[in-house]
Amino acid sequence: MHFSSYINSLPYITGDRSLDAVTKKAYRAENARISAKFKHDLFEDLGISDHPKRERLFELAQEHSGGTGRECVYNIAVDLVDLMDL
Please, are residues 73 and 62 in contact by the beta-carbon 8 Å criterion? Predict the structure, then answer.
């Protein structure tokens, strides 16, 4: 998995107050798209795209990562996937 493809390159603010609301909205939308893509790719990579407990595995991986980033979430998910009945 190439983690560099999950980086939001949009600016969060522009410095122009009249554009900041629009800029932040676009930034948040791009973050949502990137997060959904990461989750989809993680499930594909682990072979659990159709597993009924894939969302729970993702939640646990996020909780245990302590907000340290997607690479940590991925590594924890790899460790936890062995506990699932595949």
Answer: yes
